[in-house]
Amino acid sequence: MNEILNFFNFRWLLDLLDIALVSFIIYRIFLLIKGTRAVQMLLGLAVILLVYVSAQIGELYTLHWILDNFLSSIILVIVVIFQSDIRRALIHVGRNPFFADLSYREESEILEELTKACSALAARRIGALIVIERETGINDFLEVGVEIDAKVSSELIQTIFNPAAPVHDGALVLQEGRLTRAGCFLPLTQDGEVSRKLGTRHRAAIGLTELVDAVAIVVSEETGKVAVVVGGRLTRDLDTPTLKRVLTRLLNPRKTTRPKQKR
Questions:
Q1: How many domains does the chain have?
Q2: What's the distance, CA 200 to chain centroid?
Q3: Do the Cβ atoms of 175 and 133 come closer than 8 Å?
Q4: Which pLDDT tens digit goes with each residue over 70-93?
Q5: Based on the domain organization, do 64 and 182 belong to the same domain?
């Protein structure tokens, strides 16, 4: 009788809502760590858990005791191991997309100027590092740098990275559709699997994007190739059309095509 009453009291709807919310949270966590080193860490924890269960079944008391003490502090262990991913997720809340307050025409102009500048720098084999803030703030990860407030233009970007310019070695930062800082130093990646052939610009781009969801564009002065870095992953040898297409998808995936004009 209680089950029948609960059914008609729509208690089952609350249970479904509870399951749906937990499933959504788990799904978002998997999206957050997808393609990062956190996946490998989770696999490592899964192996430890498997060994713990095996030790319990096989009555390996010493090993079971060690793992039992380790897993009793698993929450603290997870916080320490995944601190960068947790911080990125918390900062992520409440932030606006890069193109949130810009019209389609302004978006197109910014992408056009960016790709034009990168192509020109690549053709002249002038190194460059451009960081584009998306939803996660990056100010806490920037060192030194000169504050500016300028419209995005190909000529200005090329001037900033001119070898004679005092800030050409640092990174140029774009926030909310504006050039905001130049000559910034970024945290270098600590990933030992990164190729030693990559220079400081590539390592800085990988290091920053491992911590935040920014997009980094790197122009190699050695090869004249353009690369885009997202989530610590490097995509190299991009030509101008491909670069523009990739940036459009990354900076505003909801507007990859031009909206229809009303008649």
A1: 2
A2: 19
A3: yes
A4: 777 777 777 776 666 666 556 555
A5: no
